[in-house]
Amino acid sequence: MTPLHFSFSSAFTLGLMGLAFHRTHLLSALLCLEGMMLSLFIALALWTLQFESTNFSTTPMLLLAFSACEASTGLALLVATARTHGNDRLQNLNLLQC
After folding, report:
1. For residue 98, is it within any domain?
2. Torsion sign (Cα): 64, 66, 69, 73
3. What are the transmembrane regions (predicted)?
4. Could you tell me if residue 96 is inside a domain?
5. For the purposes of burial, counting CB atoms within 10 Å of the CB of 65, is it exposed (0-12), middle (13-18) or buried (19 or more)?
6. What residues make up the domain containing 3?
7. What's the CATH code of the domain at 10?
């Protein structure tokens, strides 16, 4: 494994571990998701450049578009949660309580 592949896989793993173990605020969960998506985007872009193929050239842009949609949806949920509950703690969110 090259150092470049190791750095992207470790960045993705750190984002995943931060999402799994540090679940106190919704904003920190969204930042971990964005870090994971950024490492995936850079890895896909470099993979496309490495193979020099035009067949996979749209894949990083498609991932970036989905990442932007995910970020906007997450921020909208963050604002809605902060308005209704007063904070963004994930412990206060209960789906069974309406």
Report:
1. no
2. negative
3. 6-22, 29-49, 61-80
4. no
5. exposed
6. 1-89
7. 1.10.287.3510
Task: Return the closest-CA partner of residue 30 out of 63, 64, 74.
Answer: 74
Helix (H) or strand (E) holding 87: none
How many domains, the chain?
Answer: 1
Give pTM, 2 decimals. 0.83
Give the rounded distance of the alpha carbon of 12 from its chain centre: 9
CA distance 96 to 98: 6
Contact 93, 85 (CB under 8 A): yes
Residues 6+ apart with CB under 8 A from 3: none
Please count the other Cβ atoms lying within 10 Å of the Cβ belonging to residue 19.
Answer: 17
Tens of pLDDT along the chain (98 residues) come to 788 889 989 999 999 999 898 878 888 999 999 999 999 999 988 888 888 877 878 888 999 999 999 999 999 998 998 898 888 887 777 666 65
